[in-house]
Amino acid sequence: MIEALRDRTGCLLQNHGTVTTGEDLRSAYDRALQLEWMCQVWLAARGAGTPSLLPPEEIDRVAAKLRGYGQPR
């Protein structure tokens, strides 16, 4: 688990479930909800075949666009 969390805020533990971290309990809980949602998306995508993974630079680009999304300027 320690190795899996290096440079990450969450991981899946085989036969155990998820572990997430955060600055406080609320942020760790929010990350757990996001991880659960991502797993549901992955399972739905697997139902249609093998999902294509986005390259890291594309994920970074999208994450930058989403920072502050919905927040007043």
Low-pLDDT runs of 5+ residues are: none
Radius of gyration: 14 Å
Number of E-type strands: 2
Tell me the fraction of residues in β-strands, as a range: 5-15%
End-to-end Cα distance: 38 Å
Give the overall pLDDT as a whole number: 92
Spatial shape = globular
Structural class: mainly alpha
Distinct helical segment count? 2
**Biggest sheet details:** 2 strands, antiparallel
For the biggest β-sheet, the strand order reads 1-2
User: How much helical structure, as a percent, in the residues?
Assistant: 40-55%
N-to-C order of helices and strands = EEHH
Quick gist of this model?
Helices cover 45% and strands 11% of the residues. With 73 residues, it is mainly alpha-helical.
